[in-house]
Design a protein that fits this description.
The protein is an alpha/beta fold. It has one domain: Glycosidases (TIM Barrel). The radius of gyration is 21 Å and the shape is globular. It binds beta-D-fucopyranose (FCB).
């Protein structure tokens, strides 16, 4: 029997919240001196984003953040993870800061705090300044220094009020999709570029941790990793090596060096030419928590023509799937949480989990999303089972507060617990938002 999360007893300090990211919700892409990011560029490339959608307006959160924070307060959320758009505060990625852009996050942070919600600031959720990509982006070793300088700007500006920082969101996703597979910006497909990006992003993480530690009193530092079980498609032995290779790339290429001081064996030799003396110590800096983004497993198949010998396969025909086709495996979520606690020995916060659909208001204007409620109930129940089994999970942030710009899928996939009508920008909490709010109330220890 699956655990009913509303009836379970939760650890006293367990926190509940939601996550968003700058490019996916802010809009105001050409306003108040914001510079271009690599996602602005990608959206203009033919065929890269569904329907030619862009983040130009998105949820117009830049202008409507007060309403959005009020919604979070109404739902009883305790923490809010957002990201700063690097090109909004440093239009060219380095050099002169943009005061108007910095002011926006001042207003946002103050509003979040006034609502009694804790702001968690993620420094990088994929919107690299285009001006830095023009210099090679993450393939340029100098990127670690650029990121450290950007971290210092943000830490000095908000560190008096924000105490919880994440360096990066999903290292493996944006480096693999951006530099090996062309499923994301900047859309390069080159083995050497991919390896350099992995190593330089790891260096940037380490440098950023040091800056945060030195500038923010009482800081709590984490990094947000995607971690999904990689399963051989069809359970076939010929896909097992590919699944192992993907596991090392997708799950371990970042947390292993950052927390254990070594690259996974299948990557170590390939990356060696880019590693300089002292680098592993620069990368492996003590942090306070492990952020986990998790949706479901990946089914992998061998593909000798692919750069790394693997390709995305599909789940079995009878696998439960969300409306957008992602496999639903709450048991894997439980297992991952237990494995992470054992492997890295850090408190874990689930910084993203949720499910995508095509939610629409009914005739009465209400948005009912029973499939999302079933998904959240199953996954949060599985998380509770993990905690019972010894996993050190301290909090859960749903992805996402709002329907938003879902990268290559544009606006076709809705992940919000709050519906957004992109014509009118009207927000309507879905039935899952009410369910989540009730869960939070039910889990509060009196
Ligand atoms: C994650 C991303 C997030 C969102 C969800 C659905 O990989 O971090 O921005 O796109 O998937």
């Amino acid at each position: 029997m699956a655990t009913d999360p509303t009836a379970a007893t939760w650890p006293r300090d367990f926190v509940w919240g939601s996550s968003t990211s700058s490019y996916q919700i802010e809009g105001a892409a050409r306003e108040d001196g914001r510079g271009l990011s690599i996602w602005d560029t990608r959206c203009l490339m033919k065929g890269k984003v569904a329907n030619g959608d862009t983040g130009d307006v998105a949820c117009d959160h830049y202008h409507r953040y007060r309403e959005d924070v009020a919604l979070m307060k109404e739902l009883g959320l305790q923490v809010y993870r957002f990201s700063v758009a690097w090109p909004r505060v440093l239009p060219r990625g380095r050099g002169v800061a943009n005061e108007a852009g910095l002011d926006f996050y001042d207003r946002l942070v103050d509003t979040v705090l006034e609502a009694g919600i804790e702001p968690w600031l993620c420094l990088y959720h994929w919107d690299l300044p285009q001006a830095l990509d023009d210099l090679g982006g993450w393939t340029n070793r100098d990127s670690a220094g650029w990121f450290a300088d950007y971290t210092a700007l943000v830490a000095k500006r908000y560190g008096d009020r924000v105490k919880c920082f994440a360096t990066f969101n999903e290292f493996a996703v944006f480096t693999m999709f951006g530099y090996a597979i062309d499923w994301g910006a900047p859309g390069i497909t080159d083995r050497a570029a991919h390896l350099k990006a992995i190593h330089h992003v790891n260096l940037a993480h380490g440098a950023s941790v040091d800056v945060l530690r030195s500038l923010v009193r009482g800081v709590s530092i984490g990094a947000v990793h995607n971690w999904q079980l990689t399963r051989a498609e069809g359970g076939k032995p010929e896909n097992e090596d590919a699944a192992e290779m993907l596991d090392q790339h997708w799950n371990r290429a970042f947390p292993d060096p950052q927390l254990l001081g070594v690259y996974p064996p299948l990557i170590a030799t390939a990356i060696e030419p880019y590693v300089q003396a002292g680098d592993m110590a620069r990368i492996c800096r003590p942090i306070d928590w492990f952020g986990l983004n998790h949706y479901g497993p990946i089914f992998v198949k061998a593909d000798p023509s692919a750069t790394w010998g693997f390709a995305w396969g599909g789940p079995p025909d009878d696998a439960p799937r969300s409306e957008i086709g992602w496999p639903i495996y709450p048991g894997d979520f439980r297992d991952v949480l237990i494995q992470l606690t054992q492997r890295y020995k850090l408190p874990v916060y689930v910084t993203e989990n949720g499910c995508g659909g095509d939610d629409k208001p009914g005739a009465d204007g209400k948005v009912d999303d029973p499939k999302r409620i079933a998904f959240l109930s199953a996954y949060i129940g599985a998380m509770h089972e993990a905690i019972e089994a010894g996993a050190d999970v301290r909090g859960y942030l749903v992805w996402s507060l709002l329907d938003n710009f879902e990268w290559g899928s544009g606006y076709t996939q809705r992940f919000g617990i709050v519906h957004v009508d992109y014509e009118t920008q009207k927000r309507t909490p879905k039935s899952s938002a009410r369910w989540f709010a009730d869960l939070i109330t039910a889990t509060r220890v009196p």
